[in-house]
Amino acid sequence: MDHxxxxxxxxxxxxxxxxxxxxxxxxxxxxxxxxxxxxxPMSLNGLTNACNQKNNRNPKSELGEDEVAQxxxxxxxxxxxxxxxxxxxxxxxxxxxxEKQLDLIKPERAILAELxxxxxxxxxxxxxxxxxxxxxxxxRDVEETLTDMSxxxxxxxxxxxxxxxxxxxxxxxxxxxxxxxxxLESTSPVFIPSADKRLDEVxxxxxxxxxxxxxxxxxxxxxxxxxxxxxxxxxxFE
Length: 238
Prior knowledge:
Layout: H1 20-35, E1 42-43, H2 44-51, H3 65-77, E2 81-84, E3 93-96, H4 98-101, H5 106-118, H6 123-129, H7 139-150, E4 157-159, E5 171-173, H8 181-184, H9 197-235
Antiparallel strand pairs: 1-3, 2-3, 4-5
Helix pairs in contact: 1-2, 1-3, 1-5, 6-7
C-alpha cells in the first residue's frame, strides 16, 4: 500500500503531536464522518456533544465549546481540520483532513478514530468496535490493517507491552505521548459491545434540529428587519 504524502525518509519526530482535547475532537470528527455522514461536517455545538457523549469514549470528557473551538484551531494549524461554510447555512461547520494529511483509507480511519476516542485496545476489541464505521472481513483483516499502519514511516500505531498478569497486548495511536502501562492496570478486561448506530443517529438528529431552529430564528429576525424597512419606506409616500 502506497502512502505517498508521508516521506519514507521521515522519522518519528515528523508525526504531529496532539493534546487530549485535540485527539478527542479529531476522533469525533472521523467517527461522525463514517457513522453519520448525513450530519457531517459538524457544527461547534454538535462536535462538543460528540466529544462528550457517554458511549464510545474513554475517558469520558466534559469539554466546553471554548475548549473544542481552541482544539479545532490547533488542528487547523496542524492541517488536520478546517472550517466549512455551507451555502444557505448560517452555522459554521467543521471537518477533518485526516484522509489527506495522514493519507488514511477508510478502514485505517475507522481504527484510528477508535484509538483516539477510547484509548489502547486489543485487535479483538477494535474488530468489534470499529465495525460500526467499517465492515472488516474478520479479525485477520483488522490485524493486517494495524500492521500496515505500524509499518509506515512514521508509524501511526504501535503495540504496548502486556499488563503484568495478562496476556493480551493493546494497540495505541502515536499522535500523542505513549500511554503508561500502570494507567491501564486498574482497567478490568470487560468486553463492551459496539454501540447501536441508531443512538448516534438520534443524537445527531437532535443537534441538526437545534441548528435548524437557530437558522429559523435568524431568518425571523431578518424578516422583521425587512418589514420595518418596508414600513419606513412606505411612510415616505403617505
